[in-house]
Each structure stands twice: as structure tokens, then as C-alpha cells.
Amino acid sequence: MTTTDVTTTPGRERSAEELKALVEDAQRRFGERDADPDEVLAWAAETFGKKLAVACSMASDTVVPALVSTHLKGVDVLFLETGYHFPETLQTRDEFARDWPVNVRTLLPELTVPEQDEKYGAKLHDRDPGLCCGMRKVAPLDRALAGYEAWVTGLRREETPHRANAAPVEWDEHHQMVKINAIVDWTFDHVVAYAEENLVVVNPLLSQGYPSIGCAPCTRKVAPGEDPRAGRWSGVGKTECGIHL
């Protein structure tokens, strides 16, 4: 479906305590490892319906909203338009929105890139990547997620040490909502295989030396043998934008 900017969200009906109880029930049902993504997402679709959103960076994680859409057509897919994306990332977003029964909703930061440059100086991403990510990624997502009860991510354990203990369903303390990591056990090769078998468009940069893709100024190619996320914020000791911290 056509991409749209976020103007309205479904809103929450359940309290935090009710949502926490759902997490506890799901953890008993699915455990901490080797949960079947389809079973997890079928539960999520039935439990939350339109109050479920999917976050997608339009890299390899397009497989996640594709999976969700088999259980919940028209699901909201949240895409962070930072103003710094590779053209290939925006192309992937538009092709995915065209080919799958989802509603891709583009999240915008409060400041445009020129406005940010005027206020903080040019190339803030080089001088203070944490502040830049906070304004252009974390804050817009925080605002959007406040209108949902649960969100689905493409987070996988193998990506970083910080993600190694992620569960298929967990409580998101920061957002006070349910967080669903349906493909948390998958490897990168598993993701690619699923995309190929199910004709899910993925970012073409993945096959050009970019196994992990973020904003263009903060992403470089990865050399053979390097950690797949070595190309993100290279040289500044940063491995996460802040969304999953």
C-alpha cells in the first residue's frame, strides 16, 4: 500500500499492567528460544490487531512486515525517514509498500536536515552521533509507538552482544508496551533465504558489501571477515542507534 506520514495512531486501551500480563503469558507459551515466528505473529495479530505496529529499516528486515502481513493485512509499518538514507533504502521502502498488503507510515523528525544544521552545525552525525540518532530516530519512534500496544522488530540475537539475550516476546520498559522479536533466532542467511523464497524485496546494498544498513553518512562497506555491523558508526565506539537500548 502507498506510504503515508503518521498523523494518527490507533491509541491504547489496555493498561501497562494488562500488557505486562500478556507478556508473561506469551513467555510461558513461547519460551525464550526457538519459538516459531508464525506462531508468535499469529498470537500477536489475534491479541493486538490494529494496535500492533512493525518497525522496519528497509534493509534485510523487510521479511518481518512480510511475515506479519500474512496474519494481519494492512498492518502499520513504521519507517524512520531521517533525511540521510541511501537512495536504495527509499527505493526498497517504495517497492515493499507497493508489493505487500501493509500500510507503510513514514516517521519524520521535528527538524529537517537544514534546520538541524542551522541549530547544531553541519554534520552533527560526525560530531555527536548519539544526539543525531536521538533526534532523527529515537524521538520520532517514541512518539509513534505511544499510539500502539505492541510492536514487532527485526532484532536478531546474532547481531550484537546487546541483543544476545533478547526473547521472542518481552516487556519494553522504555515504551511501556509489548515488544515482539519474532525472528530473534534467525541468522542472516535464514533471512536472505526467506526473502528469496517468498519474493520479498530487500535492500540491494546487502549484496554490495553492506550487511548492516543505516544512514548513509554513518554506514560504510564491511571488509571480508569483519563483523557485519563494523560498518555502522565506524571508529566512534557506537553499535546501537538507541532504539533497542
From TrEMBL:
Cofactor remark from the record: Binds 1 [4Fe-4S] cluster per subunit.
Residues in Phosphoadenosine phosphosulphate reductase domain copies: 52-221
Catalytic activity: [thioredoxin]-disulfide + sulfite + AMP + 2 H(+) = adenosine 5'-phosphosulfate + [thioredoxin]-dithiol
Positions with a binding annotation for [4Fe-4S] cluster: C132, C133, C215, C218
GO molecular function, one term: metal ion binding
Any one cellular-component term (Gene Ontology): cytoplasm
GO biological process, one term: hydrogen sulfide biosynthetic process
UniProt-listed InterPro entries: PAPS/APS_Rdtase (IPR004511), PAPS_reduct_dom (IPR002500), Rossmann-like_a/b/a_fold (IPR014729)
Enzyme class: oxidoreductase
Name of the protein: Adenosine 5'-phosphosulfate reductase
Annotated organism of origin: Kocuria tytonicola
